[in-house]
Design goal:
Length: 334
């Protein structure tokens, strides 16, 4: 099935067929990402891994898999799409996902995120922007992968300091969502991984062909269609978490996902294939990512909660950035 999908003649398909395969790719990514996350988290809980480690690393990495697999698939043939996907996903995670979740219920923020993870995310975002000037090289990718390993070790060691309240809250969520046998969990991981690979291939190939026919850049496709599509699983999970009163887990997943989008995805893809970065991305997209990340730290520190007013502001800001980015990439601004 995989080989058949790889050799599908997308260039010969009518536009409605390309739209169908794009939608099919979204479905594959959504189901695959959800099942992979459930399976990975269930295995971790069954092995009695510290819940803070599960939340900040395993779940965050698993929920970033749609972006990861899509970027890896696009890396060799469409590196511009891969970079657009990373930038667009990080902007969408803060503006769209956190904004929508805050509209449903105020999002409480754990003190750990305010003191440790968010300042680290700000620093990593700045470093990623500096590295990206002129393109991401292999050695810069290796540096980011090394930071990823160091961060995971740091989380594991510092998890011992977490309060019992944090652990209890995550255990409640884990008990509800991740209670499965090891065989069930392993099956979800395998099937989820296959769906992710097929969904990413379908989405990338059909999106690139549509971009070619419409005369728009692959970067724009990555920033908009692909970024929003790969963020849909996280949006669904965040909405569910907010409705069930676990807004703090939603906030943590957004921070963790953005960290791994930059470090693991950006670093992993650049290590395999150096990523060219267009100078035009520094007019709107990189400043937007940096600005939203800084705003995230401000919102988290003000009362340790993201209110519905802040959610509205984030959502409108995301729509504004998306429009400005589209105009920039289409050549109407610069």
């Amino acid at each position: 099935m995989t080989l058949a999908l790889i050799h599908l003649p997308f260039a010969d398909f009518p536009i409605w067929a390309l739209l169908f395969f794009t939608l099919l790719g979204f479905v594959g990514l959504a189901l695959g990402g959800d099942w992979l996350t459930q399976g990975a988290a269930a295995i971790s809980v069954n092995l009695k891994i510290n819940p803070v480690v599960v939340g900040l690393t395993i779940v965050s990495i698993a929920t970033s898999m749609p972006e990861m697999v899509t970027s890896l698939v696009a890396a060799r043939s469409s590196p511009e799409l891969a970079m657009g996907n990373i930038l667009g996903s990080n902007v969408a995670n803060i503006g769209l996902i956190l904004g929508v979740a805050a509209l449903i219920a105020p999002l409480a923020v754990q003190i750990r995120l305010i003191r440790r993870e968010v300042p680290f995310l700000v620093a990593i975002t700045i470093l990623f922007s500096i590295f990206s000037w002129g393109g991401l090289s292999r050695w810069e990718g290796l540096v980011m992968l090394s930071i990823t390993i160091g961060y995971i070790f740091y989380v594991v060691r510092s998890a011992k300091e977490e309060s019992s309240e944090v652990e209890t809250k995550f255990q409640e969520q884990a008990g509800a969502d991740f209670r499965k046998s090891n065989w069930q969990a392993f099956g979800l991981v395998v099937v989820g991984g296959i769906l992710l690979a097929l969904g990413a291939k379908s989405l990338v190939d059909s999106s690139v062909e549509m971009a070619s026919r419409l005369g728009v850049s692959e970067t724009l496709v990555g920033l908009t269609i692909v970024a929003i599509g790969t963020s849909l699983p996280e949006l669904a999970a965040s909405v569910a978490a907010a409705r069930s009163g676990h807004g703090d887990i939603c906030a943590g997943n957004v921070v963790g996902s953005n960290l791994f989008n930059i470090l693991l995805i950006g670093g992993g893809v650049a290590t395999l294939v150096p990523i060219p970065v267009a100078t035009t991305l520094f007019f709107v997209e990189f400043p937007a990512m940096l600005g939203l990340t800084g705003l995230l730290m401000v919102f988290f520190k003000t009362g340790s909660v993201v209110t519905w007013r802040e959610g509205v502001f984030l959502l409108f800001l995301y729509i504004f950035v998306l429009g400005l980015s589209s105009l920039s990439q289409l050549g109407f601004l610069f």
